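Exercise 3.2. Students should predict the tertiary structure of the chain below and write it as structure tokens, then compare their answer with the key that follows.

Predict this chain's 3D structure.
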Amino acid sequence: MSTTDADLQHGHGTPVLELRGVTKAYGGTPVLRGIDLAIHEHRAVVLIGASGSGKSTLLRVADLLEELDDGDVLVDGEVVTEPGVRPLETRRKLGMVFQSFNLFPHLTVLENIVLAPVKAHGMARADAEEHARTLLSRFGLAGREGEYPDRLSGGQQQRVAIVRALATRPRALLLDEITSALDPLLVGEVLEVVRELKREGMTMVITTHEMHFAREVADEICFLHEGQIVERGAPDQLFVDPQRDETKRFLQRLLEAQRP
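Answer key:
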């Protein structure tokens, strides 16, 4: 790497989320190879890389949806991968948004959103509903509370999924390719939600193939290749003057793919 982790993190105090030496394999095939990553409060870290590079697995390991093989995950300085730590307690502090929405089809929009605050966090239902309605209005979904997911567009469903993640007031949001399942015409409305969250200082880890968007919202870009972070830096540095050959080849392929 061309710069040190300290130079790049620019963070102060304890990271909200940290991965130390995280490894993960499926059936003997390595997917994550010793990942070190710290996300400090109010910062947005964007993970880029080819499909299969380990981006989504990294987020799932961070949210304890997948067991790691070695290393540690820390939330607010506490190791959450020790034996005896309940994964549910960790997930209460992190909000995960998936590329395929993962809304419950048999529940209305409002029911989808208040389920976790009421069941997992013990919030009074009236308070949870009031907060949900406020968030829905804020993101252009007022009046949709009683709709079922299949009555919404893909962009609306993904905005509901983001609202659901925000409803528990998480310490950080993990956003996994949240526009990849959308019609191109609907991508913009979802990305605008993330831009607003960035302006408000939400701590986020984002995987995306939208390079213009990544450059716009990221405080730090991490390029993953074969399960390792092989280069990281500020967007203007990494996109304009990448240091590693793997990064240069990846960005060149993207540029060629975008040409008419």
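Discussion points: The beta strands are 17-26, 29-39, 44-48, 70-75, 78-79, 94-97, 172-176, 204-207, 220-225, 228-233. The chain is about 40% helix and 25% strand.
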